[in-house]
């Protein structure tokens, strides 16, 4: 067996299952889960229709690079969404079966564990708290994760300025999640300037996870990595978007998590190697999913309706929760990242008792982070995914409010 498998931590939801072991939820309440970031809004009918109408395409093998119509639709969406120059569908876009599998695979493609041995070992850097795929990808690539703690004073954006100078030469891959999971933090243009300069100096690749980019509360859409690169003059020349690739998905944007459809875009040199790698992995997207994906990327009306539902939930739910815990609106995304110390309970005890007494599931923040630089930045926090319908989400918020007041 691959010895690196022994380095993998249990996934947060397995830890949650163990935390709830032996607990009987109060049957007087219907179960509501805010624990898993799985969209619950209905899938738009036109996407389902496009999927069904393309079922005849199952009679042939799809290509790993995907069909030109899909790559063209993604390229067009990127250009309009981020105001960037023409994106070459042939060299700068690659469809993938959801961003999760591609985020894992990119580490296996770009990390050279042998090159880092002389300096103390290859590093894969990620924010802390983080999406656990980044950590698992690092270990399976033979590298060591390096965690950059979030900074509460910056609405929980990672504090890359805290990284010692001696660390950066060992970094081969940097995962960035903006908007962040679980914090909702969005990197600024100055954050990107700093990261691009460090990448230029040390040669590491940047994998920008942007699967929450289309869910935001304010009037301004979050800044994207390709957009930042363009504004900083990095979208043209001999090596456009050097060492930068972005990962996006239809799962949250279009409420189709079961379709497993996303893309990778950016540096043509990185994508050329990534395509070669994926050709051997068998990561081709089926023709029906490609057809449905084209329909989804070409339509913005359903995205606006989806965003309006999340805005309504944030408007109704956040004030209720703010009465009993420290919680603020995120920059973007559909999570609330709340501090529960006012209740007198740890994040683990809070989640366990809330489930037992009110049949509401939330995820302890300490499961989403690691002890790094003397602290676990998720400790005493909980993540609440506002994925349920408006009425169900409001019901959950009222139960949490009542639970917290009962503790007092």
TrEMBL record:
Its EC number is 2.6.1.17. Its cofactor is pyridoxal 5'-phosphate. Keywords: Aminotransferase, Transferase. One of its GO terms (molecular function) is succinyldiaminopimelate transaminase activity. InterPro entries: Aminotransferase_I/II_large, DapC_beta/gammaproteobac, LL-DAP_aminotransferase, PyrdxlP-dep_Trfase, PyrdxlP-dep_Trfase_major, PyrdxlP-dep_Trfase_small. Residues 32-385 form the Aminotransferase class I/classII large domain. GO terms for biological process: lysine biosynthetic process via diaminopimelate. PANTHER family: AMINO ACID AMINOTRANSFERASE (PTHR42832), L-GLUTAMINE--4-(METHYLSULFANYL)-2-OXOBUTANOATE AMINOTRANSFERASE (PTHR42832:SF3). This is Succinyldiaminopimelate transaminase.
């Amino acid at each position: 067996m691959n010895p690196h498998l022994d380095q993998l931590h249990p996934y947060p939801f397995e830890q949650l299952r163990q935390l709830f072991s032996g607990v009987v939820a109060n049957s007087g309440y219907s179960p509501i889960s805010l624990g898993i970031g799985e969209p619950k809004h209905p899938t738009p009918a036109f996407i389902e229709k496009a999927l069904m109408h393309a079922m005849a395409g199952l009679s042939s093998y799809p290509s790993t690079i995907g069909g030109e119509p899909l790559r063209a639709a993604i390229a067009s969406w990127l250009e309009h969404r981020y105001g960037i120059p023409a994106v070459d569908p042939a060299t700068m876009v690659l469809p993938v079966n959801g961003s999760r599998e591609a985020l894992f695979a990119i580490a296996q493609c770009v990390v050279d564990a042998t090159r880092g041995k002389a300096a103390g070992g290859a590093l894969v850097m990620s924010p802390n708290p983080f999406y656990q795929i980044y950590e698992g990808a690092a270990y399976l690539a033979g590298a060591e994760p390096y965690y950059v703690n979030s900074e509460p004073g910056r609405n929980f954006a990672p504090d890359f300025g805290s990284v010692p100078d001696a660390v950066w030469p060992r970094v081969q891959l940097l995962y960035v999640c903006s908007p962040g999971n679980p914090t909702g933090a969005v990197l600024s243009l100055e954050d990107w300037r700093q990261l691009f300069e460090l990448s230029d100096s040390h040669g590491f690749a940047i994998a920008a996870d942007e699967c929450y980019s289309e869910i935001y509360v304010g009037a301004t859409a979050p800044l994207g990595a390709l957009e930042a690169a363009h504004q900083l003059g990095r979208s043209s020349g001999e090596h456009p978007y050097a060492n930068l690739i972005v990962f996006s998905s239809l799962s949250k944007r279009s409420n189709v998590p079961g379709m497993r459809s996303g893309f990778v875009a950016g540096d043509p040199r990185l994508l050329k190697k990534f395509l070669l790698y994926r050709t051997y992995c068998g990561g081709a997207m089926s023709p029906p999913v490609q057809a449905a994906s084209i329909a989804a990327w070409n339509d913005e009306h359903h995205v606006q309706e989806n965003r309006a539902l999340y805005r309504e939930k944030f408007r109704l739910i956040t004030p209720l929760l703010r009465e009993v815990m420290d919680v603020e609106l995120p920059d973007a995304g559909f999570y609330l990242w709340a501090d529960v110390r006012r209740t007198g309970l740890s994040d683990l005890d809070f989640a366990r008792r809330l489930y037992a007494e009110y049949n509401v599931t939330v995820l302890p923040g300490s499961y989403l982070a690691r002890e790094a630089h003397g602290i676990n930045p998720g400790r005493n926090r909980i993540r609440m995914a506002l994925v349920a319908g408006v009425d169900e989400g409001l019901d959950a918020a009222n139960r949490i409010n009542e639970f917290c007041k009962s503790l007092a």
